[in-house]
Write a structure and sequence with these properties.
The complex is a heterodimer. By secondary structure, chain A is α+β, with helices and mostly antiparallel strands. Chain A is about 20% helix and about 25% strand. In chain A, strand 9 and strand 10 form a beta hairpin. Classes of the chains: A alpha+beta, B mainly beta.
């Protein structure tokens, strides 16, 4: 009898540990007609000349960059704007420029196989377009094929496994997430209107190595007849590059928070219900999260009481959420699956030094 | 000894077939459903098929008008987000007008199950929104979560397992919440910073707190005008499993109703039973701030943090004191002798009202701006009404029900 009991014991334990298994059957692929939404192929727009994957801009397509770009799982980005011939962009001092109807913003996401050789062995994943149609912006995601010859309109989003060698030689990998069309809007909504995020004066106020000359982008746009109303360049505000070690931590951290958070966390953004506003221009400490209790964070509070506790990043909900990869906790909610190590270190330093 | 081997083999077989649950088979319609949510035309109805469907990402509907999403019944069409790897909610609906969700279930999202923001006209009808493993801190915050909406109808729904509130309406106007069941949540039903709200004929039980009407500072709007009637709010004694920092984390287990810093509210004809700590609490944000104070002091000695206290006082549009509150003609019973003793408030009640937890409690903190606050409690004889005098270390605490009797009721 003893042996039976001994045999029973492990059996009991091994069975009790078993959780209900989840089996998911594969989805049937259905072809859907998306012609009412947008062009099926990226090549139909004619943005690029020659081999499309080289992203060589066609005439009238102007490359640009931002001082402080959004973190997207370490993806590289090449941005272009196509402004209709003979039309101009109207300058705005602190909001998105007024782009003429027909403008298309083109943002390409890619990974070089080795980050130390950023021009070689490039794998393009997606190209997102913002198209200004009759005064309203439309967001369209295109995903590239494995052959890198074409990108196709893909409204439902998808997940693509990617790996690369980081600057430090480490091999990293992520499940890169292409947003669905509505998720594009989730970040680009202001009130109930889709709006570009990047092309504001303070983001464009910096140099770009154009084919002919390295020049301040705003001055380049102006001299090429693309931009109206630019004041003296010395009066244009400038967002810090958060990677620029020469700039003060406060400015760098605020720039990082603006581009990664403030598209929602602003008075007219989708996260206005939280009462947390993170534009670099915000001056109210409580709005910035300092000593502010969470509103609807749920487990996103991490058991902490305040958005920011000066001097104490580990007691600050903001730090906790940017260091999380849990979909129900992490901030921003979309657009990354790994932590931006350099970014969170910067915010950590900012909070640590905060008085 | 010969029998041992076959016998144990038999036991092994038998015990395992009992213990191991059947694998649950899920279908997938992730790409096609998300595509439909994008291509659906205004005025259309999207019929969800019968079946159990698993998702790995949020489903998002945006900017549509007069769209119905209808399942085959809350037991027949189940959308599970158990395998979710991306997105902060299960089903997300934003902008647009007149959206109806009915007759399906949403389960196990990593964040909120169903979040609806900035929609004018949103109906949840016979939606079951739950975390299937029961109450756990790891569960999402809200099961049904309309925020910044207008014309909200939530009826005949089931909300369970939320680590914050089961049915949570935030910063919204013109809201009806009726005939729902909420259990195993920290808060069963919560209306926050909302205006013109009616909450009636609901059953809230086995939550930490049954029904909460809150107003918090620093937000887009402040609440008022709420009617709460004919609800059955009972046995809300579940341990509080909210993540600390959230306001509901300070709700003591055993709370029936909690009315915080709002105004113009009527609470009547509710059945309030066996909530062990308090039937109805009426408190000001001052008290919440005071309860948080210990912690603030700890953090403030390094670098002089702005306290929660200071923050809400800076918001000049916010009134931390409840006023114009009418509580009358409710039915109370409590078979518990002791409130939640793990909580400061519970200890206070146990001390001040031994073996008889109060039915109605008002913190009694006075508002210098408004001496007559019109906190009117008119209940049957025998209902224990307590005024705490919380601002003066409970020195003037009274159990005299006439203290809150208003003349013109």
């Amino acid at each position: 009898m003893k042996r039976i009991i001994i045999l029973l014991l492990p059996v009991f334990f091994s069975c009790a540990e078993k959780k209900q298994e989840i089996i998911v059957l594969p989805e049937e692929q259905v072809q859907v007609d998306l012609s009412a939404i947008g062009k099926a192929k990226l090549s139909e727009y004619g943005f690029f000349t020659g081999d499309m994957k080289m992203l060589t801009p066609a005439e009238g397509v102007v490359p640009y960059t931002l001082n402080a770009p959004l973190f997207s799982d370490y993806a590289f980005k090449k941005r272009f704007v196509k402004i209709p011939k003979d039309k101009t962009v109207a300058y705005h001092a602190d909001d998105v420029f007024n782009f003429p109807e027909g403008t298309i913003l083109i943002k390409n996401f890619y990974y070089p196989a080795d980050f130390n050789k950023p021009e070689e062995n490039i794998r393009l994943l997606e190209t997102r377009l913002l198209i200004n149609e009759a005064g309203t912006w439309k967001a369209l995601p295109y995903t590239w094929n494995d052959e890198q010859t074409e990108a196709y309109l893909d409204v439902a989003g998808k997940t693509i496994p990617v790996s690369w060698k980081q600057d430090d030689g480490q091999i990293r990998q992520v499940n890169y997430s292409v947003p669905n069309m509505n998720q594009c809007k989730g970040c680009h909504l202001r009130g109930d209107k889709v709006t570009p995020i990047g092309p504001v004066a303070r983001q464009l106020n910096g140099d770009y190595p154009f084919a002919e000359v390295k020049q301040n982008q705003l001055l380049y746009w102006q001299s090429h007849g693309l931009l109206d109303g630019l004041p003296d360049i010395g009066q244009v505000s400038r967002l810090a590059s958060y990677e620029d070690q020469c700039v003060q931590v406060n400015e760098r951290a605020r720039a990082w928070l603006e581009i990664n958070c403030a598209h929602c966390h602003r008075a007219d953004g989708p996260a206005k219900n939280s009462g947390l506003h993170l534009l670099a221009s915000e001056t109210n400490p409580s709005r910035l999260g300092i000593g502010k209790a969470p509103i609807a964070a749920g487990k996103g509070s991490g058991g902490l009481s305040f958005g920011i506790v000066p001097g104490k990043p580990d007691q600050s909900i903001l730090q906790f959420r940017i260091e999380s990869t849990h979909p129900g906790i992490m901030m921003p909610e979309l657009g990354r699956s790994v932590i931006h190590d350099e970014g969170v270190a910067l915010v950590r330093q900012w909070i640590t030094e905060m008085k | 000894m010969k029998f041992v081997a076959p016998l144990s083999a038999f036991v092994l077989l038998f015990s395992c077939s009992v213990e191991k649950p059947e694998p649950r088979v899920w279908q997938s319609m992730e790409q096609s459903l998300q595509t439909q949510l994008i291509t659906i035309q205004d005025g259309d109805t999207l019929e969800l098929p019968e079946g159990n469907f698993m998702f790995t990402r949020s489903l998002v509907l945006d900017g549509k008008n007069s769209v119905v999403i209808r399942g085959k019944g809350m037991d027949k069409t189940v959308l599970s987000f158990k395998n979710q790897a991306e997105g902060a909610e299960g089903l997300r609906i934003s902008n647009g007008n007149n959206i109806v969700l009915e007759d399906f279930s949403v389960e196990d999202a990593k964040g909120d199950n169903v979040k609806v923001s900035e929609v004018r006209g949103i109906t949840f009808r016979r939606i079951r929104s739950v975390w299937s493993e029961g109450p756990r801190t790891e569960n999402g915050a809200y099961a049904l979560y309309p925020v910044l909406c207008k014309q909200v109808m939530i009826e005949e729904c089931i909300a369970a397992g939320s680590s914050d509130a089961g049915i949570y309406v935030g910063q919204s106007d013109s809201v009806i919440i009726r005939n729902n069941k909420a259990y195993w949540n920290v808060a069963g039903i919560e209306s926050e910073n909302s205006r013109w709200v009616e909450i009636y004929d609901n059953e809230a039980y086995d939550n930490t707190g049954g029904i909460l009407i809150f107003d918090l500072p620093g937000l887009t709007q402040y609440g008022h005008s709420t009617k709460v009637y004919r609800n059955h709010v009972h046995n809300n004694n579940h341990k509080n499993f909210a993540a600390k920092g959230n306001i509901v984390a300070s709700i003591p287990p055993g709370t029936g109703f909690m009315i915080l810093a709002t105004n113009t509210l009527e609470l009547t004809e509710n059945k309030i039973m066996d909530n062990k700590t308090v039937g109805v609490g009426v408190i000001s944000y001052e008290l919440v701030a005071a309860l948080n104070e210990g912690e603030v002091e700890q953090t403030s000695n390094i670098g002089g943090v702005q306290t929660l206290d200071n923050n809400f006082k800076k918001d000049t549009l916010y009134n931390p004191f409840p006023y114009r509150i009418k509580i009358y003609n409710n039915e109370y019973s409590n078979s518990h002798w002791f409130p939640a003793l793990g909580h400061d408030i519970g200890k206070l009640f146990a001390m001040k009202s031994f073996m008889h937890p109060p039915d109605v409690v008002y913190d009694g903190i006075s508002d210098p701006e408004r001496p007559d606050r019109q906190i009117c409690v008119t209940e049957k004889e025998g209902v224990l009404v307590m005024v705490l005098d919380a601002a003066h270390d409970f020195e003037g605490l009274t159990k005299d029900a006439t203290a809150l009797a208003c003349k013109d009721q």
